């Protein structure tokens, strides 16, 4: 039986502002869309936190036995500088400054994004579609929205008519804003725009003559508005209505609000059942900003080459640090906090390794079964990773107790403890054992195998082939393969 049938999961739905019991549209299947990066610069640490949060969510659903399709887009066109409907395309601007093709910008920073997330041990999404790969679908959706009466064309650009939509829909329901407040707070002058109202947003923008990234459309040679791609690609790969839509907290308004409006306007249906938003990362108590120097890049954490750090930290320690906070809380990054996380991470990994080596007794002094359910309870409560980690540390304490002879464990409980720790540490939290002890072990292993290779060479020199074959075959049985070549013998480890 799939695990999800035994566990009742609640998640915080941003639109109802409550924790709700999660029930997917199709039993056993989940469709999840998360807004991906705009690839015009190296990925920020704050963005990494968002994607690590959704990786945790993705991993837990997979662990529970759901079939989940996780779609995360790459914005490679149409994201204008000021997040509104004017200004330059972020990617085109970077291309112009560096005098390269926009697609070179896209390629460079997409590769950086993938490499960085891989270091953090994030799983790749199931589908990673690009905005430029879905221009045809975006034009079709604009036509539909115009046909339904919720968009209008002016001078080759197409805008979504927010006030008209709001007459029988609720624009602002996700972010909790009222249209009256939006109107009262707007400072945009009507004369500066083709829009009927300042709240309207672009579905299609006519390209200025110097604009390189452009596509033909019924309205003009131009490019799609940024909010549109997510509506189009989520609909294409997950359907008109799907389970979960996620992203960073800063995308709630206007981006996600616009997505709801586009979806409801084009299909007449509410596109998303559960909205999830990951909170931001600060550095030394302040917002990260390149301009003030209060900033840190992922690679600088690994190398330690940043004035805010005393040393480098492994990606798994940085990931562990991030998972020690709930994804909905603001998390403050600091050298002190990372040093503390590293200590905790090493203790956890030590305890995990020791959990398979414990002496067993006739009875246990700790209910492993109840503890295991508490691990699930933590994750079932809106993916509460800090509570999960605290629960794992109950086991750490117990393991130390058994080692020191103060606690007892049965053989059966030992097995359950070890496998449960493995499941939660590696599969759910997505950590890798990069501790010094593990590196020491790999050094010890290679030293030992080198010694055996030497003894085998001596045996062969002495024509003692029985011994040399025995060394080779027994190593192979352990998953260590020897290969003889001109440069001598090398070995490889099978997984
Ligand atoms: Zn999006």
TrEMBL record:
It comes from the Bacteria. Residues 374-440 form the Cysteinyl-tRNA synthetase class Ia DALR domain. Its EC number is 6.1.1.16. One of its GO terms (cellular component) is cytosol. InterPro entries: Cys-tRNA-ligase, Cys-tRNA-synt_Ia_DALR, Cys-tRNA/MSH_ligase, CysS_C, Rossmann-like_a/b/a_fold, tRNA-synt_1_cat_dom, tRNAsynth_Ia_anticodon-bd. It catalyses: tRNA(Cys) + L-cysteine + ATP = L-cysteinyl-tRNA(Cys) + AMP + diphosphate. GO terms for biological process: cysteinyl-tRNA aminoacylation. ATP binds at residue 290. Binds 1 zinc ion per subunit. Its cofactor is Zn(2+). A motif ('HIGH' region) lies at residues 37-47. Monomer. Belongs to the class-I aminoacyl-tRNA synthetase family. This is Cysteine--tRNA ligase. It comes from Gillisia mitskevichiae.
